[in-house]
Amino acid sequence: MPDLEVEHSHEDCHGHDHNHDHKNEHQHHQQQQHAHVYDKLDLAESLLAEIEDGQYICLVCADELDAKSPIWNCSVCYRVYHLPCIKQWAEKSLAFRADSPDPTVESWKCPSCSTTSSMIPREYRCWCKKELNPTYDGIAPHSCGQTCAAPLSCIHKCMAICHPGPHPECTALGPMIKCYCAKKSKQLPCILTSYSGWQCNNICGELLPCGMHKCQKKCHQGLCGDCSEKINATCYCGETVLPVTCNNLEPKQSVEIDAETGKQSKSWIGFFVCDKIQEGKYECNVHSYKLECNKRTADTYKCPLRPVEGETCPCGKSPVTDILGHPRSSCEETIPTCGQVCDKKLKCGHTCKYPCHEGECPRCYFVTDMRCRCGYNRFLVPCGFAVTGEKPICARRCTGNLNCRRHRCTNVCCEFEKKAIKYGKNAVWGKGYSVYDETIEREYKEKHGCTQTCNAMLNCGKHRCNKECHVRPCGPCLESSSEDWVCPCGRTILRAPVRCGTMLPTCPYECTRPTLCGHPTPKHPCHGDDKECDRCLRLVSKPCACGKNPEVKNVPCYQEYASCGQLCGKPMACGHPCPKMCHRPGECETKCSRCAEVHILGCKCGEISRTIPCKATAADREMNLLIPCEESCLEAARRRQLAEAFGMDPARQAPGEFEYSDNVIDLYLANPGWCTSTEKKIRDFALCHVGNGDNGTNKVLRFPPMKKYDRMFIHELATAYNIRSQSYDPEPQRNVVLFAPQRSGPTSGSSTPGEAGTVTVNGPVYIPRLTVGRYITEHGIA
């Protein structure tokens, strides 16, 4: 039964899903049909149609919105939402902002356009907001049916029925609008009406500010402006008559006084200043004047030296009557001085200390303390010099950088030095500050600009910057080539002009360059001259390098030499055959390669014999196969003489044969494989340092970290070869290093035990005749 229930349930669900899928397909088909219709409608009509059809989606809940759902719409983007959804959205947004770092901001954002609002939507109103909880009349959803009456951008109101979306254009007739000059009027539809006025084809005709002329411009907006008419005008001195723009006239009343009668002889209105100088005599007929063109009055011609009532001495301290005892009688009489200190205030603030005098006061002779131009030194300068605005100059040379921050200023007493040092430390582009301050750099360039050429290498790596030395990074290279860039195969072309630094695009075709061998080119992409073609991989037959096999088969074509795999065997200069594999001619002997064969050398008396490697090189053409006799040779000769004198056998007096220590033999028997390979390394190392110790080979032989008894074997064996050994590093990284002697020879030596882990030796390297293995075999040690 449970199985049947499950199966049955499955069938019901399947049938329901089938019906639901069919319904969804039908709805989807309807949505597609509606979509084509909605596209042809404006925004307001589309909103109403989608809501009426139940196809409009609320962005908050993602559910359909119909004509009976309480709604709220955004006044900016006109998006429509369910009222409960947008209310919950606003409340959650405000609650989230209350927990934010700035809780004072109480606003929420529209989900569509992010317009902020502080009021939470709580009421369901019609589109025009006039009616609360509007009822659906079957015509327009969420509409009250009244006129919208919202104010438009013009003087009218929206006459459409309560609607969503933007307001339609105004269709009313506009008011009568006068032109700019107010001579004509016209009336147009509101959307075509220019409420600021319009221009007719008449002349303006308004009276200009001069009060004499009228505006001759075409009907225009705004003020008429100044009068540009020209009239013939007289200057202030009456000597010049010129045409002057009406706007530039400055009328002033001028008069002329007759020098003989002292009465006004002429009067006129002057309008401008000419460049003439008028000469004549004052009313006194004694003193003369030179007057620039200016307004002429009766006082202009009066003598400035004439006696006046209450006049004083030049400094103003004493009346003339007190000095002379009577007033001056005429302008020819000199104004007397009182003899007191002048005390007039000078420009610098001090008072004149000269005696009462006529004319301007001399320069102040007080001394003041003043900084030099660069501000590092102080000087005592006359007060009169300080008033001029100039600054004293010291001998200090500027140490600040120029605006490029690369070159130094060498000017004497530079006024910008302190700022240059400050900017040089704190305003270097890319290091001292992250924001490029244009104001600072502009002042820096004006006061401390570098005039040298930058000459820095540009990013292209070919050209240099030819601008003035600057602080910011050089711009891109602006050089260009007037020739087309063509790839090697000629099928990819970059047309001129080609800017410097431009890379040729990757050619999609194959390389067509012929190979040197003549074989077909392996397929590979087209490339530049900086890259070689792929190597020819065809298998061919070539003679071997040593000449033993004239035809080695299956050799890649790109390979210059083939190898037959046999030993060379050609005799070298030392007489031994070349042990190298097949190689090119002339490579048997080189200055750095040595012959590895072994020579048995002996002394002249035959007492000493040594086995050493040949080590001959291309530079060693002569070899000495004799070794010099030593003290042992003399001892052997003396033993032979004594033996012959006493009738004894000299061979019985020979020293005992070399013996390995018990530790070496025991360790060898315990691990013969490792001991044999280690002994070979030590023996080869010793052979390399027999004879001339400084032969260019390694001076040390390092062994990897090992156990205590393995190190003991190396120390004991090094003692047998008379080689110094040393242990380094703590456990478990303790290792042994062998050191080559400074000089060595093929003779026996003595060893001296050193400190723990160290074996020191005296004398040359010693090569035992028998290895440890052969020594054990010959002596029957088990």
TrEMBL record:
Record's signal peptide: none
UniProt KW keywords: Metal-binding, Nucleus, Repeat, Transcription, Transcription regulation, Zinc, Zinc-finger
Location of region: Disordered: 1-35
InterPro entries linked to this entry: NFX1_fam (IPR034078), R3H_dom (IPR001374), R3H_dom_sf (IPR036867), Zinc_finger_PHD-type_CS (IPR019786), Znf_FYVE_PHD (IPR011011), Znf_NFX1 (IPR000967), Znf_PHD-finger (IPR019787), Znf_RING (IPR001841)
Biased composition regions of type Basic and acidic residues, renumbered to the chain: 1-28
Gene Ontology biological process: negative regulation of transcription by RNA polymerase II
Presence of keyword Metal-binding: yes
Domain R3H: 676-742
Primary site of residence: nucleus
Domain PHD-type residue range list: 55-116
Residue ranges of every copy of the RING-type domain listed in the record: 58-114
Location of this chain's protein in the cell: Nucleus
Taxonomy, superkingdom: Eukaryota
Keyword Zinc-finger applies: yes
An example Gene Ontology molecular-function term: RNA polymerase II transcription regulatory region sequence-specific DNA binding
Family: Belongs to the NFX1 family.
Protein's UniProt name: R3H domain-containing protein
